[in-house]
Specification:
The structure holds 2 protein chains of 2 kinds.
Chain A lengths: L4 H7 L16 H34 L2 H17 L1 H4 L3 H8 L17 H10 L7 H19 L5 H19 L11 H18 L1 H7 L1 H19 L16 H18 L2 H4 L4
Chain B lengths: L12 H17 L6 H6 L37 E9 L4 H20 L1 E2 L18 E2 L5 E7 L37 E7 L2 H14 L4 E10 L33 H7 L16 E10 L1 H5 L3 H8 L34 H5 L12 E2 L2 E7 L5 E11 L3 H11 L8 E11 L12 H6 L7
Antiparallel strand pairs in B: 1-5, 1-6, 2-3, 4-5, 4-11, 7-10, 7-11, 8-10, 9-10
Helix pairs in contact in B: 3-4
The chains are: A mainly alpha, B alpha+beta.
Chain lengths: 274, 439
Amino acid sequence: MKKTPFALLITLGLLHTPLSALAATAPLDLVGPVSDYKIYVTEQLDLLADNTQQFTDAVKKGDLAAAKKLYAPTRVHYESIEPIAELFSDLDASIDSRVDDHEQGVKAPDFTGFHRIEYSLFSENSTQGLNELADGLSKDVQDLQKRVAGLTFPPEKVVGGAASLMEEVAATKISGEEDRYSHTDLYDFQGNVDGAKKIFDLFRSQIQQSDQAFAAKVDKNFATVDRILAKYRTQDGGFETYDKIKDNDRKALIGPVNTLAEDLSTLRGKLGLN
Amino acid sequence: MSDSENSLDPFNLQRRRVLLGMGVAGAALAGGALSCPAMAASGGQNVQVTQAPSSDKTRDRHDYYDQHQNGILTPRPAAGMLVAFDVLASDRQDLERLFRTLNQRIAFLVKGGPAPHADPRLPPPDSGILGPQVTPDNLTVTVSVGASLFDERFGLATAKPKRLSRMQGFPNDALEPAQCHGDLSLQFCAHTADTNIHALRDIVKNLPDLLLVRWKQEGTVPPQAPTKPGEPAQSARNFLGFRDGSANPDSTDNSLMNSIVWVGPETDEPHWAVNGSYQAVRIIRNFVERWDRTPLQEQQSIFGRNKASGAPMDGAHETDVPDYSNDPDGKVTRLDAHIRLANPRTAQTRNSLILRRPFNYSNGVNKNGQLDMGLLFICYQSDLEQGFIAVQTRLNGEPLEEYLKPVGGGYFFTLPGVRDEQDFIGRSLLNAAAPVANA
């Protein structure tokens, strides 16, 4: 690490905004966390690609039971890195769009990806006619992997990702509408929360320096969410279906989730990012 | 109570003249003035399509500090909104934080002033929908609590108002769980819907860990043309086309309000509840297509009033009091007419008087293509059982039910007012029950 700050930033592909725009925060402080985050995303994408291969193989072989079992644990890796995955809106639409995104519903020709396959597996109990959709998903995930590898991670997108993951939870996970056919929403829920917590952990030392109480409050709310989610873990490391969640637990999750969304929305500003 | 200041913003002067001119013309022509505003507004003025409607009433405001809360006897403005919440507080301490924060936000919102702001790299603390200067716009926010707040969570069971219960369905109800009940209700009233929404968003943003919106219903009151000097003001119409609130007790009569609306010191209610009131809320869908296909005389006999004037069947003016003593068989006013069942005007039913404060609502379209609209019914009374519940029980089976379907609502207790800046909303309730020992 003998490089100058500038050289280091350029090497890591982080310097896409002029230094002066980063204002109050020493930009060098962000280099480590952002490159660590890229490593995390890369690992998650490797897992996503491997699992997607197994999942789509099972679909194509017509192994309904195996496909159903692999559905949720596969897509959890997508959910945990959504702020980066969403930078590629074409792939996000083809991989992760939900039936509500399509006026023609399940019959819409551009309704593809995880949730379209989920519909066939869990609502129709069938793997019939899914070959093309399975191949498409597999190809899209590999494409995503390639694109992310060549991506310069914008620090504000990384830091802002913590809040957007909690917005995802508040908007579509609490209501149980993400995985409406499989009811495996709690996997995605945990994936979003883990992804947000990862980002917060990476920038923890900078945050703690400026606002110890804020960091403690965020930690407390993450811990509350994890504790409630843990009640719904199953023996195999997975989760119960969303309809099993008790009303008082669902309500107990809403406060911390909304507060995390509210608090993490200040993270960019607190780190002096524009 | 209302101190409308002189608004003389220079850029508004020209338009103010137009508006004032219209006002005079409107008053002179009384009921027939409806064609005037359109003509006046385009009368050679250089007015752009997107120019905002102008009002000199945005600075109307109410003093927050009083023994009673505002929004009950306060004249009902054009826009209302009832929002019910689940309280997410986990203990008594959190509940106190909830009330104190709520108090602080409401005190600011009803007074107005510069919107809170922050470093532009942070999310703005104010939604900005009223601009950098928050205008009070006649806003009132009325805080009430539901029976469920008195469960085991906060140790408030012993302080529960005697007649506060969870709303039970009446025979004609089709209650939708997602539109019923709540730990807390906030009634927002202002000149414009945007002011109510601004206040709601402010409260939601400031209390993310303590409050969760459970349901919300907005409504309106259509402004009435000015009446001639000496003539009484006329009640607004509901979506069935009838004047609503004609028989309301006189809300300017303090001693009447002390018996009908406010919980007084000489009752069996807990002492903290004095100067509070019971709030009954009902979302009552109207089958308007069917109603519009019903002969006028049948509509009138179902209500017991003349549709155009609002007069009772034996009267000429809306304000005439019906006399049922000469009509024991219902030949003039049907025995099952809405107004006769609701208020039979007998000595025995005097104690069931309520203060109505309803709003019309329009939500969209049902699956069958029929309009989803009706009445956001809100009423206040010192005794929920002798008030709304008794009235609604008398109405069970009324012919009007064919055109109505109550789908939501709840019962709440409206807290006493906030005395001064040292006081806060809910303080007397929290002080009344011994604090629970928290683990």
